[in-house]
Amino acid sequence: MRRAAIERLLPAAYQRAAGPGSVLGALLDVMEALHAPDEAVLADVDALFAPYRTPDGFVAYLTRWVAMDHVVAAPRADAPLPLPVGRLRDLVAHGALLARWRGTPYGMRTALELATGVTGFALEEPADRPFHVVVRVPPAAADRLALVTRIVEAEKPAAVTVEVTTDPTPAPQDQPSEEPS
Fold first, then answer.
1. 172 to each of 6, 15, 55, 153, 175, how far by Cα in Å?
2. pTM for the full model?
């Protein structure tokens, strides 16, 4: 608070006594200086909770706020994050959307795409196996199979079993043969 604002909170007799050079005036100056650091933090407190403005160290904490803590779950507290910070920021920013679609194929696919940065996840529900989902992981995300499995297990409905498989690497396309002219 500014000195003038603090002074207005005082009774009228104290306000008259808080003139420049007085002991009470000096005390109000000290009070203003003591409030300044806290007010600076409070002025930007919204930046702590904005996914793209918060400090890097706070992003993992925010993933827990939006129920995506299974993504950053690590066996040890000092283990590095399983995703780049930018991916975690995307998950936090889309937290409400992911919560709304949790348990659906769209929600699972969206969570997987946001976490890995790779599109092309296929979810299939075999007709001969009710309450079972096969998640096909594109080759570009095959190196993050542990993360994909953790997300699939958390995002699937409770009564559904899942199978996570990697799509075979696409075969290189044959080069067109040159025809003689």
1. 74, 83, 43, 33, 9
2. 0.71
DSSP per-residue codes, 81-98: PSS-HHHHHHHHHTHHHH
Residues of the chain above pLDDT 70, percent? 90
Q: Are 51 and 93 in contact (CB under 8 A)?
A: yes
d(CA 12, CA 10): 6
Backbone phi, psi, residue 9, to 5° = -80, -15
- pLDDT value at 143 more than 60: yes
Under 8 Å between Cβ of 49 and 59 = no
What is the rounded CA–CA span in Å between residue 71 and residue 84? 11
Q: How far is C-alpha 1 from the geometric centre of its chain's CA atoms?
A: 33
